[in-house]
């Protein structure tokens, strides 16, 4: 396919795809587009723990929210305490530890405790059955100054802090995975801690909160953890959940609401009587990617092919996957797995987009796709580099280093704004 035809093909697909997608579809595509990171680490369902034993070692890490600091600065029941109660109500004997949750902790301090063998936390992580984590808000709160009923924020410092939060959480999760590869980890997003401020001030704060939650979510996905958003729940009836305008901490009712959001993903409840837990998995990451695609898409006109031994290609392809309404399927770079071929056939796909050049995905694999009857864009790496830049006014550009942490923490932003991303070797 010539470069001109490739441009026309992508443009044709773009014109066919409306940006007015439903929330359900948006969540589906986001989940599928992040397949590469999700399948990098195994998880354990609560239902499986029940089959193996009737006790659970629950470890809560984080800041004052994990510790249970209340709106009057007293110490009470935080969301981990309510989660421990949920475990008990569900029939578990609970060994609950929140002694490593420290009020005022930043993401850097949480990471330092995890890294330090002398703290004793590594032993607790190794023996844990479930871990929850919240960190990052204190990194930002120290940069927000309240003046004359308003606020002052330095955007340069905020951006640097957001990037550091993403790196610290991703690194923390990486160490947790080394110590306990199978433990399910749930990472909390943050809520608007200043709901009583004027609306114009709220508008000023919103991008910072969004950036924080996006950085935490991206780091969670990279680390094989589950991101738990609480912003929307805490905004509902905030006068009860955040009763003190002068204090960012919730009431116990607020903490209970947070715990409810955790429990929704920790033990999903079906519409029918009884409880069920769904696990999507395969023998390897390639088969798991096909399973996730099968669960999320009834059919798809286009599939995106990315190598599974490194995640940057799949990650920077997230906005494209969103726009083309396409699942991301993984390959070892040399050939398609049997499960991937079967999934392409089941989807009824007509087009395939390959992420990366021939060094990432071989010509042999491209020929396989052609043999399956797919119209192939042989290399998005080449196509995008040749495409006229005048068609875009904004780009996200990331310099590649040993670990692309910046790119990982930034990816939700181009997805949200439908901006293409470039991963470059050097400037």
UniProtKB/TrEMBL annotation:
For the SGNH hydrolase-type esterase domain, which residue ranges apply? Answer: 60-257
Domain of life of the source: Bacteria
List, alphabetically, the Gene3D superfamilies matched.
3.40.50.12090, SGNH hydrolase
Q: What stretch or stretches form a coiled coil here?
A: none
Concerning Pfam families, the annotation shows: CW_binding_2, Lipase_GDSL_2
Know the name of this protein? Lysophospholipase L1-like esterase
